Amino acid sequence: MKEFVMVYRSELMGEIKLTAEGNMVVSKEWENWMGGIAAQNKLVSPGMRLGNEGRVIKPGNVVTNGPYAEIKEIIGGLSIFKADSIEEATEWAKTCPILNAGGNVEIRDIIQVNG
User: Fold this and answer.
1) 115 assigned to some structural domain
2) Is the pLDDT of residue 13 over 80?
3) CB of 6 within 8 A of CB of 106?
């Protein structure tokens, strides 16, 4: 079994303001989605939400305000899963709640580095 990271992206829109009811609906969608994978004992690290503040360090110690100010999309969070194949991870990603909000999911395999 391999480990995969799912990176959740959406367009930068500032802090999204949802009503309390809307926030509960979105939270429940994510909870149900992650819970379904966790029930299979394949969730390595639960979702981590990233804030909108950041810095990007480039060669020559050039520091810019980030994240990735040059593009419209930002990484909003990530999770780590175990799956038998990238195809299995892809099937989970197809049901990710971020797709309902116009976002997307990138799946990458994790290569363990022994150091």
Assistant:
1) no
2) no
3) yes
